[in-house]
Amino acid sequence: QGSKGEEYDLLVIGAGATGAGIALDAATRGLKVAMVERDDFASGTSSKSTKLVHGGVRYLEKAVWELDYNQYKLVKEALRERRFFLDTAPHLSSWLPIMIPINKWWQAPYFWAGTKFYDFLAGSENIETSYFMTKSKALDAFPMLKKDNLVGALVYYDGAHNDSRMNVSLGMTAALYGATVVNHIEVTSLTKDENGRLNGARVKDLVADANGSSDEFNIRAKGVINATGPFTDSIRKMDDQKVPEIVAPSSGVHVILPGYYAPANMGMIDPHTSDGRVIFFLPWQGNTIAGTTDT
């Protein structure tokens, strides 16, 4: 914990996955870092994911059919980073087999080729290769699937993790390396020197003292990073009220269902829903997460 009067090399506003990652990276490079969060760590977007350490299988189809090299590079990078993630935090992440239902015979060779190419790209980054599952075994795993047109299923491996716990771990590790990490501290304004250059922020302690009052003070820093996600523009406007907004908000929905919708050790993906989007059914702490990341 730092003192209120000292100057930091870097002030990170926001302690979600991005902010905590930046704070950790900067602290391990020897910078003097302060990170503040107005709510709790991972209280925003960073705790509301699909709980996957995604290898990018959804982008592989686009890379192949549209000959999109950037999508291909994205898949390769995601596979590499997935392995780093699983190796670094095995207590918070694990491999998860995910089933793709096959409802038409022609889909079997199509999805088989796709998952095998995915295995090939993963190489040593993968734990097991994809495999075909018979109709009976697919129904054993997900008995609520429509039986009429079901041919079978293909199973590939991806990563799953506890997003909020990982976020907290990043913040705690940054603190271990010397960063000052504080939650329930709200930035109320940005401060500038006599030349108009940002030199920190005015903050308010949202945890009231015994008398019901909240402390306000300045944090001085040579650099300020805005890692507030969907609230990015509100921080930017503290610097310049006329600045054009750069954030285009999008919403995502995940529905928590009873655990019997998915087995404890396997997830399911429907890559082609009626409206053309992807939907997952994934086991999570005795329940099932169903959803897509965009609406």
TrEMBL record:
Keyword Ligase: no
Required co-factors: FAD
Top class in the EC scheme: oxidoreductase
Keyword hit for Flavoprotein: yes
Listed EC numbers: 1.1.5.3
Any Gene Ontology biological process: glycerol-3-phosphate metabolic process
A GO CC term assigned to this protein in UniProt: mitochondrion
Record's keyword terms, sorted: FAD, Flavoprotein, Oxidoreductase
GO MF annotation: an example: glycerol-3-phosphate dehydrogenase (quinone) activity
Domain of life of the organism encoding this protein: Eukaryota
Boundaries of every FAD dependent oxidoreductase domain copy: 9-294
Family that this chain belongs to: Belongs to the FAD-dependent glycerol-3-phosphate dehydrogenase family.
Protein name as catalogued: glycerol-3-phosphate dehydrogenase
Taxonomic lineage: Eukaryota, Fungi, Dikarya, Ascomycota, Pezizomycotina
